[in-house]
Design a protein that fits this description.
- This protein is of the alpha/beta class and 770 residues long.
- It has 24 helices and 28 strands.
- A six-stranded parallel sheet has the order 6-5-4-3-2-12. A six-stranded mixed sheet has the order 13-18-17-16-14-15, sandwiched between helices. It has a five-stranded mixed sheet with strand order 20-28-27-22-23.
- The protein is globular and about 75 Å long.
- Bound molecules: beta-D-glucopyranose.
- The site of beta-D-glucopyranose (BGC) has 7 residues, from loops.
Length: 770
C-alpha cells in the first residue's frame, strides 16, 4: 500500500489543482491518475529483447567490453568511439555530443549509439533549489518540476541519462552531500525520489524530452563515519532495510532503469563490490532489469594500494589485491558499466580465459546496457531533438524559470519570526546586507549542472525589484577557495562591518543574507563544524545593535548549528541554495507575496556535539532527561531536544490540526485503515500547512523508532478555511524489517501522531490483530 501511496502522492500538478479547486476532502489515494505515469516500456520489451540478442550475437568480446566502458569527456577519443565505446559522461557541448554520436553510429562497426550521461541534479541550465531544499517543500511537485525541466534542457543537448535522483538518507550534517537528497527521512526521500524518477523518465523515456534516471548511491553513502565523504559505514541489516533502502526501492518501483553503486564500504563491503546488494537485492528481490554503473573509479578503488607507490591510480578498500581482481569482483557482484577506470575492459579477456568471469555474465551486463539504450530510443533517435545551434534557445525558457522561482520559495522554511517581523513592508527603505546578498555564484548550490553564475538574480536585485532603492553592504567576504588555505571559510575580518552598520542605520529595515558558500556543500565538502562560517555571527550582532528590524536569510547546504543566532535574530528564513531565481524568490517570501510553508527535512541541532541527532531515533532504556544523571544525555547541554525539529516550519498565518480519527480500532496484518485529520487556517492570511502523520510501534521485537513519518500533505488554505486530509495505512506502514532482512508485521498496538511537525502530540491508537 505504501507503494501505492507513494505514487498517489506524486500525482501530477493536474490532480492537485483539481483537488485544490474542489476543496473539501483530500484523499491520499487516487488510482486513475497515478496510472498516467506508469512506465509503458513493457509493451515494447519483447521486441527489444529480440533486437538486443541479435546485436549481442554479432558482437566480439572486445566490443562487449567496450559497451561496458563509461568514460568522462576528458578521456574520450574518436578512436575509442570507433571501437564501440558504450557511454560517456559530462559532455554538455551539443556540438561535441553530436559529433561523437555521429562517429558512433556511422563509423563504429556495429553502429551502436553512445549513451550520454550527466549530473542533472537540481536543474541543467535553469538551476532549481538544492534537493535538500526541495525536501523542505514537502511537495512532490517541486521535485517533479525540477527534473521535468532538467530533463528537457538536458535532452536538448543530446544527453539521455542523468545520475539522479540522489536518494541517500543521511543523519550526518557534516557530510557535504546531505545537500543532494531530501534529508533524514526514508519516507520523504521515497516520495520525492519517486516523483523525480517519474519526471526524468515520464512513461517512456524514449520521449525526446526525457532521460533515463539513475538513483544513487547504492547504498548507505549518507552515513559516513565522522561525516567525511567516502568514509566507511557500518550498520545493522534492520537499519539498512528500514532507513536506507526504501528510497531506492521507491525509485525502482517508479521505473528507474539504471542505478549507481557507491564509493563507501558498508560493513566492510564496498558498494561496487557488493554482491548481496546488487545481485541479490536489487536484481533479484526487486527484479531490476536495467544496468548498474559504478561510481567514478569506484571499481578501481576496490583494490589495495601498493605500499609506497602512490602513482598507481585509484585504490584503497583492499578487498582484492590488484586490478584484474577488482574487475572480476565488480562484474561478478553486479556492476554492469565501469565509470572512468577501465579495469573490466583492460582485463576482461584475460579474466575470461582464466575462468574468473563468465561470458554469461559479460553478456548479461551488455544486455542490460543495450536494453536501456533501446528503451531510450537511441537506435531510432541517436541525436538530440534539435541541432546544436538551436540548443541555447531552449535554455532558461520562461516556464522553466517560473517553475524555479516557485520551487525556491516553496522550499523556504520560516524557522522563527519573533514579533511577526516578517513579512517586511516593501514600501519602506530596505538594506540588504551580508556576504550572500549580492552574490550570484553561491546561489546555484553544489551541483550547478550547466548553470552559469550570470543566470542568477541575486538577493539584492530580487529585493530591489520589489523594494526599489534598496541599499547594500557586504559586511565580509566568504571564501570560495579550496583547502588547504589559511582561511578556508572566509569572512575572517570585520573591516566591512562599519559600512554594514552605517547602511543598516540609514535604512528602515534589513535583510541579512548569511550562510555558506556553495563550495562548502556537495561532494568532497565535509565540514568539521556546523557554525556560520567566519565572523558572520558577529556581523549579525553588529546589525542587531542598530536596533533596526531585521530578518536573517540563510543560504546553506546542510543543517547549521544556530544556537548562537536564535537569540539575536528575531526572524530567520532558511532559503538553502535556491538556484537561478534566488533573489525574486527571497523577495517573494520576505515581502509576503508568498507565504512560506516549507518544513525542515532534517533536524537542526543546537550544536555539533549532538550529532547525529534525528527525529526517527530508536528509544533507549535510559531516555534523555536533562534533570537526571544516569540517562542518555549530554551533561553540558541543558536540553534533550534539537534547536529545530524535523518537520518544523512557521507561516505568516496560523493553523490548527485537529480531530485525528481512525476508520477502525483494529486491523488484520494484511488489512488497511484510514487516518484522517482536519486542518484549519486560523489566521488572517492565505497559507500552506504540511499535515504530517507519524507512527510508533511501542512494543516490537526490534526496538522501533520513536516516530516514523508515514504520510504528509501540503495544503493551501484561505483564512477561515479547513480541510480534511486522509491517509491510508497498511502493513508497509506498521511492519518493519528485522535483522535477517525479513519484513515482519507483529500484532499489538500502534500509536498514530498527527500535526505539523515531528513533535506533534495529538495521538490515537489501533491494534494489529494476531
Ligand atoms: C559522484 C557521483 C557522480 C559522478 C559523476 C562522482 O564523483 O559521486 O554522484 O554522479 O561523480 O559525475
Amino acid at each position: 500500500m505504501r507503494r501505492f501511496r507513494v505514487r498517489a502522492s506524486i500525482i501530477l500538478p493536474v490532480l492537485a489543482l483539481v483537488l485544490a479547486a474542489a476543496g473539501g476532502v483530500v484523499a491520499a489515494t487516487q488510482s486513475s491518475d497515478e496510472q498516467a505515469l506508469q512506465p509503458i516500456r513493457q509493451q515494447a520489451d519483447g521486441d527489444i529483447e529480440r533486437r538486443v540478442n541479435a546485436l549481442i550475437s554479432r558482437m566480439t568480446l572486445q566490443e562487449k567490453l567496450e559497451q561496458i566502458q563509461l568514460l568522462p569527456d576528458f578521456m574520450v577519443t574518436e578512436e575509442e568511439v570507433r571501437n564501440g565505446l558504450g557511454s560517456v559522461l559530462s559532455v554538455t557541448d551539443p556540438a561535441r555530443i553530436r559529433e561523437l554520436q555521429r562517429i558512433a553510429v556511422e563509423e563504429s562497426r556495429l553502429k551502436i549509439p553512445i549513451l550520454f550521461a550527466f549530473d542533472t541534479i537540481h536543474g541543467f541550465r535553469t538551476i532549481f533549489p538544492i534537493p535538500l531544499g526541495a525536501g523542505a517543500s514537502f511537495d512532490p511537485r517541486v521535485a517533479f518540476n525540477d527534473h521535468k525541466f532538467g530533463a528537457r534542457e538536458s535532452a536538448v543537448v543530446g544527453l539521455k541519462q542523468t545520475y539522479a535522483p540522489m536518494v541517500d538518507v543521511s543523519h550526518e550534517p557534516r557530510w557535504g552531500r546531505i545537500a543532494e537528497a531530501a534529508g533524514e527521512d526514508p519516507y520523504l526521500n521515497s516520495v520525492l525520489g519517486a516523483a523525480r524518477v517519474k519526471a526524468i523518465q515520464g512513461r517512456d523515456y524514449s520521449a525526446r524530452d526525457k532521460l533515463v534516471a539513475s538513483p544513487k548511491h547504492l547504498v548507505a553513502y549518507g552515513q559516513p563515519e565522522s561525516g567525511r565523504d567516502y568514509n566507511t559505514t557500518d550498520m545493522s541489516e534492520q537499519r539498512l532495510r528500514n532507513f536506507y533502502l526504501p528510497p531506492f526501492k521507491a525509485a525502482i518501483d517508479a521505473g528507474a532503469d539504471t542505478v549507481m553503486c557507491s564509493f563507501n564500504a558498508i560493513n566492510g563491503v564496498p558498494g561496487c563490490g557488493n554482491d548481496d546488494m546488487m545481485n541479490r537485492i536489487l536484481k533479484g528481490e526487486w527484479g531490476f532489469d536495467g544496468f548498474v554503473e559504478g561510481d567514478w573509479t569506484a571499481v578501481a578503488e576496490l583494490r589495495a594500494c601498493p605500499p609506497k607507490t602512490p602513482d598507481t591510480g585509484p585504490c584503497g578498500h583492499g578487498v582484492v589485491a590488484d586490478g584484474p581482481a577488482a574487475a572480476a569482483l565488480a562484474l561478478n557482484a553486479g556492476v554492469d558499466s565501469e565509470m572512468t577506470s577501465t579495469l573490466i575492459r583492460d582485463f576482461g579477456a584475460q579474466l575470461l580465459a582464466q575462468g574468473r568471469i563468465s561470458i554469461r555474465r559479460i553478456d548479461d551486463a551488455v544486455r542490460r546496457i543495450l536494453r536501456v539504450k533501446f528503451r531510450a530510443g537511441l537506435f531510432e533517435h541517436p541525436y538530440a531533438p534539435v541541432t546544436p545551434d538551436k540548443a541555447e534557445a531552449e535554455m532558461l525558457k520562461p516556464d522553466a524559470v517560473a517553475a524555479a522561482r516557485k520551487a525556491a520559495s516553496r522550499s523556504m522554511v520560516l524557522l522563527q519570526n519573533k514579533g511577526g517581523i516578517l513579512p517586511l513592508d516593501p514600501a519602506k527603505k530596505t538594506a540588504v546586507i551580508g556576504p550572500l546578498a549580492n552574490n550570484q555564484h553561491d546561489m546555484l548550490g553544489p551541483w550547478w549542472g550547466a548553470g552559469r553564475d550570470s543566470d542568477v538574480v541575486t538577493v539584492l536585485d530580487g529585493i530591489r525589484q520589489q523594494s526599489p532603492g534598496a541599499t547594500f553592504a557586504e559586511g565580509c567576504k566568504l571564501s570560495n577557495a579550496e583547502p588547504p588555505t589559511t582561511d578556508p571559510e572566509g569572512c575572517g575580518s570585520d573591516a566591512g562591518f562599519a559600512e554594514a552598520v552605517a547602511t543598516a542605520r540609514a535604512a528602515d529595515q534589513v535583510v541579512l543574507a548569511l550562510g555558506e558558500t556553495r563550495e562548502m556543500s556537495g561532494e568532497a565538502a565535509s565540514r568539521s563544524t556546523l557554525d556560520l562560517p567566519g565572523r558572520q555571527e558577529e556581523l549579525l550582532r553588529a546589525i542587531k545593535e542598530t536596533g533596526k528590524p531585521f530578518a536573517v536569510v540563510l543560504f546553506n547546504g546542510r543543517p547549521l548549528a544556530l544556537e548562537g543566532v536564535v537569540d539575536d535574530a528575531p526572524a530567520i528564513l532558511e532559503a538553502w541554495f535556491p538556484g537561478v531565481q534566488a533573489g525574486p524568490a527571497v523577495a517573494d517570501v520576505v515581502f509576503g507575496n508568498v507565504n512560506p510553508g516549507g518544513k525542515l527535512p532534517v533536524t537542526f541541532p543546537r550544536r555539533l556535539g549532538q550529532v547525529p541527532i534525528y527525529y526517527n531515533h530508536e528509544p533507549t532504556g535510559r531516555p534523555c532527561d536533562p534533570n537526571q544523571k544516569y540517562v542518555s544525555r549530554h551533561r553540558d547541554i541543558p536540553s534533550c531536544s534539537p534547536l529545530f525539529v524535523f518537520g518544523h516550519g512557521l507561516s505568516y498565518t496560523t493553523f490548527e490540526v485537529s480531530d485525528l480519527r481512525l476508520s477502525a480500532s483494529t486491523v488484520s496484518r494484511n488489512g488497511s485503515l484510514q487516518a484522517s485529520v482536519t486542518v484549519a487556517n486560523t489566521g488572517r492570511r492565505k497559507g500552506d500547512e504540511v499535515v504530517q502523520l507519524y507512527l510508533h510501534d511501542p512494543v516490537a521485537s526490534i526496538s522501533q523508532p520513536v516516530r516514523r513519518l508515514r504520510g504528509f500533505e501540503r495544503v493551501t488554505l484561505s483564512p477561515g478555511a479547513s480541510r480534511t486530509v486522509t491517509f491510508t495505512l497498511d502493513k508497509s506502514d506498521f511492519g518493519f524489517y528485522d535483522n535477517r532482512g525479513k519484513f515482519i508485521v507483529e500484532p499489538g498496538r500502534i500509536d498514530v501522531y498527527a500535526g505539523n511537525s515531528s513533535s506533534a502530540d495529538m495521538t490515537r491508537s489501533f491494534t494489529v490483530r494476531a
